[in-house]
Amino acid sequence: MAFQGIANRCFNVVHKQNLIYNTCWEDPLLDRQALQLGPQDSVALITSAGCNSLDYALEGPAEVHAIDVNPLQNALLELKIAAIRSLEFDDFFQLFGHGRHADWQSIYRDRVRDQLSDVAKRTWDKRINFFDGSHRRRSFYFRGTSGLFAWLINRYVRRRPELRSAVDELLEADSLEQQREIYRRRNVDHLLWTRPLRWMLRRDATMAMLGVPRSQRNQIDRDYPGGLAKFIQDRIAHVFQNMPLKDNYFWRVYLTGEYTPECCPEYLRADNFSALKAGLVDRIKVHTSTVEGFLRQHDRPISRYVLLDHMDWLYDRFPDLLVSEWQAIIDRASAEARVLWRSAALQVDFVDPLQVTIDGKPVRVGDLLTYQNELAASLHQDDRVNTYGSFYIADLRGLAA
User: Fold this and answer.
1) Tens of pLDDT, residues 106-117
2) Residue 113 to residues 117, 122, 241: CA-CA distances in angstroms?
3) Spatial CA neighbour of 56 closest among 296, 378, 275, 248
4) Which of 78, 88, 148, 398 lies 20 to 30 Å from 20 when distance is taken between CA atoms?
């Protein structure tokens, strides 16, 4: 119990004082197919790095509500929105595609800063060098806590020229057959998984940097043969050998510190940037709050919820808050609402037994959900990130907000 407490405190210290995520690690291509967004939909999601808020907005829903308790994550989304409104595409791509811009300090002061909230201004005034390329971690995608770990991994790879050459060759492969041939011929598994890296991945401090709470690690250690380190090793091997890397912008930015015009999130494509600038970005609203807190003060129905994996943390540490969050979701859900979430666990068993109240009567959450298991399983197989144990799509039927 004492060890568990130390791990939780480490996670809390990291998360409350830092920008954790500089890019989203949930594949919005899956989410788009699962959400089936229409012009009448109102979406509530956890902000993270804001990439997927912009991606969903491109589908043209009525509203996208980005919610996060970490104001630094919301400040990043605010910065992206302000840059879309005030910059031309080439400058925007240098910032969020390459992760740096030689003229960032003047661009920020003269064109972007005035469009930010006071909290976001203070955030980026203190971190203005995140984008100017002056730091030894030259790319924005090597900043923040997850970015620091990505930078350390890149240093690790660079110091092994044979491994760096193999990774670069994999990223340029034209087909899965070519990726598999490179992986085997270059013996990537042997080159990558040295004893120091395995040791690092077993540390709670490392997992906190990556935004992984102890409760998620416990789930993987419990469910996966070989525990967390073997889970990560197997997932990366699967990505390199069985997922096309040509459009896998998640792993490209992690392994190089930048995107390319051909391999990047949708908001970094010129046509989509223009669509966001023309008005779609104005449909995004940013809220520094818990999910429950937002829903309690919001006075209109929500038809789509994207909860990422935060329930893994809530159920272990704050089960009462998880119940009250689901109560708020049900109270605010439209008649045909759909909920998406992910988990480190191979199978989530803590959602269905939760008890909420409808018309004064206790009801199990599981009795209100219609799971789209075949669709979720099919989409999960194509997840370009491939770091979650499971993916869930569930409809809340017959509820009136």
Assistant:
1) 999 999 999 999
2) 9, 10, 43
3) 275
4) 88
Query: Domain with 29 in it: what CATH number?
Result: 3.40.50.150
- Cβ count within 10 A of residue 130: 27
pTM: 0.91
Task: Please give the mean pLDDT across all residues of the chain.
Answer: 91
Q: Using the Cα atoms of residue 106, residue 16, residue 45 and residue 33 in order, give the sign of their dihedral.
A: positive
Q: Is the pLDDT of residue 186 over 50?
A: yes
CA distance 250 to 342: 17
Query: Angle at CA 58, nearest 5°, toward 55 and 64?
Result: 70
Give 356's strand partners.
363
Cα(188)–Cα(46) distance, rounded to whole angstroms?
Answer: 35
Domain that holds residue 293: 3-98+266-396
- Residue 133 resides in a domain: no
Domain count, the chain: 2
45 in Cβ contact with 67 (< 8 Å): yes
CA–CA distance from 66 to each of 49, 50, 288, 290, 370 (Å)?
A: 10, 8, 8, 11, 25
**Inter-axis angle of helices 144-158 and 249-256, nearest 10:** 70
Residue 128 domain flag: no
Task: Identify the band that residue 40 occupies on the pLDDT scale cut at 50, 70 and 90.
Answer: very high
| Contact assessment for residue 67 and residue 289, using Cβ atoms and an 8 Å cutoff | yes
Are 179 and 170 in contact, with CB atoms under 8 Å apart?
Answer: yes
Q: Distance between CA 249 and CA 29 in Å, rounded?
A: 12
pLDDT in tens, 209-236: 665 666 776 777 787 888 877 888 899 9
Distance CA 321, CA 326 (A): 9
Is 392 strand, coil or helix? strand
Q: Which of 256, 279, 299 corresponds to the end of one domain?
A: 256
Cβ-contact 127, 147 below 8 angstroms? no
Residues 153 and 248 grouped into a single domain: yes
